[in-house]
């Protein structure tokens, strides 16, 4: 969804500037705001997504992120005014940064050490594929159908997330639900070997829980006074 959302403005530019635009022909200045609002939304979203992800967990946060994209695409699909389109693009930016933060956390917490690099690299590949997908659509489809397809894709992703994607075992450990965390690890590692599962739990605790418990927040003054924090 990140690739689709980030590249959406490219294939629809000529459509929104034409007489067939659902919000009226846009000027270059008006369209520049269409491209500028996602980064602004991303900056705003960066202030609160981390707290939401920490409290809700990775799965519920993924659902919330996908719902944000769904609403954004739905508004784009049926908008009748320029300001509705601006709102949709702002929400899109919030969804992009939420997706980037949550995906990184989730993949690092569910994957084995030897697969972490590959899985994190795949997120970039998928984003590029999403960008290519929406650009190809722009060559053949109308504005309405481009947004309809992306809205349906978000809806399908919501169902898949809800039914099949497990919660992060690290989040469950933080909530004191070690038994549930172990059950999820059985599914993720495709094993019921107690030795392997206990070893994985120990790795997760040492990698995420012990580190986060020993860490403390730095004040703004400490950040600027500590030479190491400037690099």
Automatic annotation (TrEMBL):
<dbReference type="InterPro" id="IPR050549">
    <property type="entry name" value="MFS_Trehalose_Transporter"/>
</dbReference>
<feature type="transmembrane region" description="Helical">
    <location>
        <begin position="31"/>
        <end position="50"/>
    </location>
</feature>
<dbReference type="GO" id="GO:0022857">
    <property type="term" value="F:transmembrane transporter activity"/>
</dbReference>
<feature type="transmembrane region" description="Helical">
    <location>
        <begin position="146"/>
        <end position="165"/>
    </location>
</feature>
<dbReference type="InterPro" id="IPR036259">
    <property type="entry name" value="MFS_trans_sf"/>
</dbReference>
<feature type="compositionally biased region" description="Polar residues">
    <location>
        <begin position="7"/>
        <end position="22"/>
    </location>
</feature>
<feature type="region of interest" description="Disordered">
    <location>
        <begin position="1"/>
        <end position="22"/>
    </location>
</feature>
<feature type="transmembrane region" description="Helical">
    <location>
        <begin position="89"/>
        <end position="107"/>
    </location>
</feature>
<feature type="domain" description="Major facilitator superfamily (MFS) profile">
    <location>
        <begin position="1"/>
        <end position="231"/>
    </location>
</feature>
<feature type="transmembrane region" description="Helical">
    <location>
        <begin position="62"/>
        <end position="83"/>
    </location>
</feature>
<dbReference type="GO" id="GO:0016020">
    <property type="term" value="C:membrane"/>
</dbReference>
<protein>
    <submittedName>
        <fullName>Facilitated trehalose transporter Tret1-2 homolog</fullName>
    </submittedName>
</protein>
<keyword id="KW-0812">Transmembrane</keyword>
<dbReference type="Pfam" id="PF00083">
    <property type="entry name" value="Sugar_tr"/>
</dbReference>
<feature type="transmembrane region" description="Helical">
    <location>
        <begin position="119"/>
        <end position="140"/>
    </location>
</feature>
<keyword id="KW-1133">Transmembrane helix</keyword>
<dbReference type="InterPro" id="IPR005828">
    <property type="entry name" value="MFS_sugar_transport-like"/>
</dbReference>
<keyword id="KW-0472">Membrane</keyword>
<dbReference type="InterPro" id="IPR020846">
    <property type="entry name" value="MFS_dom"/>
</dbReference>
């Amino acid at each position: 969804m990140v690739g689709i959302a980030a590249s959406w403005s490219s294939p629809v530019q000529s459509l929104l500037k034409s007489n067939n635009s659902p919000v009226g022909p846009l000027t270059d200045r008006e369209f520049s705001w269409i491209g500028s609002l996602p980064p602004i939304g991303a900056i705003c979203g960066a202030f609160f997504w981390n707290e939401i992800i920490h409290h809700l967990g990775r799965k519920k946060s993924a659902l919330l992120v996908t719902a944000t994209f769904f609403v954004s695409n739905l508004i784009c699909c049926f908008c009748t005014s320029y300001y509705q389109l601006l709102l949709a693009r702002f929400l899109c930016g919030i969804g992009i940064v939420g997706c980037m933060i949550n995906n990184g956390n989730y993949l690092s917490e569910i994957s084995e050490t030897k697969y972490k690099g590959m899985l994190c690299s795949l997120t970039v590949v998928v984003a590029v594929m999403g960008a290519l997908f929406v650009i190809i659509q722009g060559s053949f489809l109308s504005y309405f159908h481009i947004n309809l397809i992306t809205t349906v894709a978000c809806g399908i992703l919501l169902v898949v997330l809800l039914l099949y994607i497990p919660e992060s075992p690290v989040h469950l450990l933080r909530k004191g639900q070690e038994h549930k965390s172990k059950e999820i690890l059985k599914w993720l590692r495709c094993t019921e070997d107690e030795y392997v599962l206990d070893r994985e739990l120990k790795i997760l605790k040492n990698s995420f829980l012990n580190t986060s418990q020993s860490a403390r927040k730095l004040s703004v003054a400490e950040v600027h006074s500590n030479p190491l924090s400037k690099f």
